[in-house]
Amino acid sequence: MSLEGKKAPDFDLEGSDGKRHSLKEYAGKTIILYFYPKDNTPGCTKEACGFRDDYRKLIDRGVVLLGVSKDSIASHGKFIAAQGLPFVLLSDPDTVMMQAYQAFGEKVMYGKKTTGTIRSTVVVGPDGVVKKHWAKVAKAEQHPAEVLRFVEQGGALS
After folding, report:
1. What are the chain's domains?
2. Catalytic residue among 44, 88, 122, 130
3. Which residues, 6+ apart, have CB-to-CB distance to 98 below 8 Å?
4. Mean of the pLDDT values across residues 93-121?
5. Is 49 among the residues known to form the active site?
Protein backbone atom coordinates (compact mmCIF):
# COMPACT_ATOMS: atom_id res chain seq x y z
CA MET A 1 0.00 0.00 0.00
CA SER A 2 1.44 3.34 -1.03
CA LEU A 3 1.78 6.26 1.35
CA GLU A 4 1.60 8.76 -1.53
CA GLY A 5 -0.85 11.59 -0.92
CA LYS A 6 -1.06 10.81 2.81
CA LYS A 7 0.24 12.85 5.72
CA ALA A 8 3.71 11.58 6.64
CA PRO A 9 3.83 9.79 10.02
CA ASP A 10 5.65 11.74 12.72
CA PHE A 11 8.85 10.34 14.20
CA ASP A 12 11.30 11.15 16.98
CA LEU A 13 14.63 9.34 16.72
CA GLU A 14 18.24 9.78 17.72
CA GLY A 15 20.56 10.77 14.89
CA SER A 16 24.21 10.10 14.19
CA ASP A 17 24.83 13.81 14.85
CA GLY A 18 23.90 13.37 18.54
CA LYS A 19 20.56 15.19 18.16
CA ARG A 20 16.93 14.06 18.18
CA HIS A 21 15.15 14.33 14.84
CA SER A 22 11.40 14.64 14.27
CA LEU A 23 9.16 15.33 11.30
CA LYS A 24 7.95 18.67 12.68
CA GLU A 25 11.55 19.89 12.83
CA TYR A 26 11.59 19.75 9.02
CA ALA A 27 8.26 21.49 8.38
CA GLY A 28 8.45 23.53 5.18
CA LYS A 29 11.30 21.42 3.77
CA THR A 30 11.39 18.46 1.41
CA ILE A 31 12.76 15.37 3.15
CA ILE A 32 14.03 12.13 1.66
CA LEU A 33 13.80 9.26 4.15
CA TYR A 34 15.54 6.16 2.92
CA PHE A 35 15.18 2.95 4.88
CA TYR A 36 17.85 0.27 4.61
CA PRO A 37 18.55 -3.06 6.34
CA LYS A 38 22.08 -2.84 7.76
CA ASP A 39 25.17 -0.63 7.98
CA ASN A 40 28.30 -1.80 6.15
CA THR A 41 26.64 -4.51 4.06
CA PRO A 42 27.20 -4.58 0.28
CA GLY A 43 23.80 -3.35 -0.98
CA CYS A 44 23.38 -0.79 1.79
CA THR A 45 26.90 0.54 1.23
CA LYS A 46 26.27 0.96 -2.52
CA GLU A 47 22.99 2.76 -1.82
CA ALA A 48 24.52 5.05 0.84
CA CYS A 49 27.46 5.89 -1.43
CA GLY A 50 25.05 6.73 -4.26
CA PHE A 51 23.23 9.16 -1.98
CA ARG A 52 26.62 10.49 -0.82
CA ASP A 53 27.68 11.12 -4.42
CA ASP A 54 24.40 12.95 -5.19
CA TYR A 55 24.22 14.75 -1.85
CA ARG A 56 25.40 18.16 -3.10
CA LYS A 57 22.77 18.12 -5.88
CA LEU A 58 20.06 17.28 -3.34
CA ILE A 59 20.96 19.94 -0.78
CA ASP A 60 21.39 22.53 -3.54
CA ARG A 61 17.66 21.96 -4.13
CA GLY A 62 16.91 22.44 -0.42
CA VAL A 63 16.28 18.75 0.26
CA VAL A 64 17.05 17.08 3.60
CA LEU A 65 18.34 13.49 3.32
CA LEU A 66 18.05 11.06 6.25
CA GLY A 67 18.93 7.36 6.28
CA VAL A 68 17.10 5.08 8.71
CA SER A 69 17.93 1.59 10.00
CA LYS A 70 17.72 -0.48 13.18
CA ASP A 71 21.47 -0.13 13.69
CA SER A 72 22.87 1.61 16.77
CA ILE A 73 24.33 5.11 16.76
CA ALA A 74 27.79 3.53 17.27
CA SER A 75 27.29 1.38 14.16
CA HIS A 76 26.08 4.42 12.21
CA GLY A 77 29.22 6.31 13.28
CA LYS A 78 31.48 3.58 11.89
CA PHE A 79 29.47 3.42 8.65
CA ILE A 80 29.62 7.20 8.19
CA ALA A 81 33.38 7.25 8.87
CA ALA A 82 34.12 4.30 6.58
CA GLN A 83 32.09 5.68 3.66
CA GLY A 84 32.47 9.45 4.17
CA LEU A 85 28.71 9.98 4.42
CA PRO A 86 27.75 13.68 4.74
CA PHE A 87 24.17 13.08 5.93
CA VAL A 88 22.54 12.03 9.21
CA LEU A 89 21.56 8.41 9.87
CA LEU A 90 18.70 7.79 12.30
CA SER A 91 18.61 4.82 14.67
CA ASP A 92 15.25 3.02 14.95
CA PRO A 93 16.08 -0.04 17.10
CA ASP A 94 12.43 -0.70 17.98
CA THR A 95 11.34 -0.26 14.31
CA VAL A 96 8.56 2.15 15.35
CA MET A 97 9.30 4.65 12.57
CA MET A 98 10.04 1.92 10.02
CA GLN A 99 6.69 0.26 10.71
CA ALA A 100 4.85 3.60 10.40
CA TYR A 101 6.48 4.08 6.98
CA GLN A 102 5.83 0.46 5.89
CA ALA A 103 9.59 -0.19 5.88
CA PHE A 104 9.50 -3.14 8.27
CA GLY A 105 7.53 -6.34 7.92
CA GLU A 106 7.27 -9.52 5.93
CA LYS A 107 9.55 -9.88 2.92
CA VAL A 108 11.06 -12.63 0.82
CA MET A 109 14.81 -13.16 1.03
CA TYR A 110 16.53 -15.94 -0.90
CA GLY A 111 13.14 -17.51 -1.56
CA LYS A 112 12.11 -17.61 2.12
CA LYS A 113 9.61 -15.42 3.92
CA THR A 114 11.17 -13.47 6.73
CA THR A 115 10.44 -10.38 8.82
CA GLY A 116 12.80 -7.46 8.60
CA THR A 117 13.63 -4.09 7.13
CA ILE A 118 12.18 -3.45 3.69
CA ARG A 119 14.50 -1.29 1.59
CA SER A 120 12.30 1.65 0.65
CA THR A 121 12.28 5.41 0.29
CA VAL A 122 9.76 8.16 1.00
CA VAL A 123 9.88 11.77 -0.20
CA VAL A 124 7.92 14.10 2.09
CA GLY A 125 7.01 17.49 0.66
CA PRO A 126 7.21 20.82 2.48
CA ASP A 127 3.53 20.42 3.42
CA GLY A 128 4.23 17.16 5.31
CA VAL A 129 2.48 15.00 2.68
CA VAL A 130 4.21 12.01 1.06
CA LYS A 131 4.98 12.96 -2.57
CA LYS A 132 6.65 9.69 -3.57
CA HIS A 133 6.91 6.25 -2.00
CA TRP A 134 9.18 3.56 -3.37
CA ALA A 135 7.69 0.72 -1.31
CA LYS A 136 10.30 -1.82 -2.35
CA VAL A 137 13.66 -0.86 -3.80
CA ALA A 138 15.07 -3.71 -5.89
CA LYS A 139 18.37 -2.26 -7.12
CA ALA A 140 20.04 -0.43 -4.24
CA GLU A 141 22.94 0.86 -6.32
CA GLN A 142 20.65 2.46 -8.94
CA HIS A 143 18.06 3.87 -6.54
CA PRO A 144 19.78 7.13 -5.45
CA ALA A 145 19.90 8.29 -9.10
CA GLU A 146 16.17 7.50 -9.42
CA VAL A 147 15.42 9.62 -6.33
CA LEU A 148 17.58 12.47 -7.64
CA ARG A 149 15.71 12.38 -11.00
CA PHE A 150 12.40 12.64 -9.13
CA VAL A 151 13.66 15.68 -7.18
CA GLU A 152 15.18 17.33 -10.26
CA GLN A 153 11.91 16.92 -12.15
CA GLY A 154 10.19 18.94 -9.43
CA GLY A 155 8.07 16.08 -8.07
CA ALA A 156 9.14 16.75 -4.52
CA LEU A 157 8.20 20.40 -4.49
CA SER A 158 4.62 20.31 -5.76
Report:
1. 12-152 (3.40.30.10)
2. 44
3. 35, 68, 70, 92, 104, 117, 118
4. 91
5. no
